[in-house]
Amino acid sequence: MSVIDTLFTGRAAPLARDGYPPVASGIVKTAQSSPLWLSRNGLAGDEQGDAVYHGGPEKAVHHYAVEHYAWWQACHHDSPVALVAGAFGENVSTHGMTEANVHIGDIYRAGTAIVQVSQGRQPCWKLNRLLRTDGAALAMQMSGATGWYYRVLQEGWLAPGDRFDLLERPCPGWPLRRLIAALFPVDPQAPGLAQEWQEAAAIDALTANWRATFARRVQTGALEDWSRRLVEPAHHTATPRQPTRN
Q1: Residue 162 contacts residue 89 (beta carbons within 8 Å)
Q2: What is the rounded CA–CA span in Å between residue 230 and residue 116?
Q3: H or E, element range at 35
Q4: What is the DSSP letter of 243?
Q5: How many Å apart are CA 69 and CA 88, to the nearest integer?
Q6: Which residues are registered as beta bridge partners of 32?
Q7: Which residue of 76, 107, 193, 245 sits 20 to 30 Å from the alpha carbon of 173, by its own alpha carbon?
Q8: Is the pTM of this model over 0.85?
Q9: Distances (CA, A) of 88 to 38, 124, 152
Q10: Of 153, 225, 143, whose CA–CA distance to 176 is shortest?
Q11: CB neighbour list of residue 228: distance below 8 Å, 6 or more residues apart
């Protein structure tokens, strides 16, 4: 059980960085003190700047552990953004729930809503823009401290102080830490990695996109190119990352 410390929402707005054209993003959010309605598409008053890759029923709510910010503060002590709860565009901030003890497919009652963990976050270059450093998204990815998303099984009200009560854990062998390590392997040729991909591709509670990614890796033995997600478009002059065979 964990308690919601803070709820965050934000409207899509231009996100600027010197030397780059502004882009629409909902990553900048503000704390909300009143109860918010959680629909299958997310919290009332919350928006995404790019509906193709962000938001939607399978990524209705983003949850990030406040415990991770100590690491970010130590590594990015000169950040132009205060590295405190809400800094990375999360909707829910808590103590006590992390990728180590939250599992894919977990079903929680939160307020009067019921939600299910659907996937981890795949950080994109907009985090680089927010922090004005080109390696932030990759750092989040490789740290495993990405946070996670929920799909909404029952719409309802959420408020600060509401509890996350675990109702079901259909995948007790798959904490998010294991799933994220399989998606973003430190060693793409580690023994047993292909077996991890095969098992992950069969997890019914996982989003279709992640299952398809794992299934494709099983077939090809290759990691996909991450550069378009991790590198700002203006920097796509670098040689594309070559797929690594497992």
Answers
A1: no
A2: 27
A3: none
A4: P
A5: 10
A6: 7
A7: 245
A8: yes
A9: 20, 11, 21
A10: 143
A11: 236
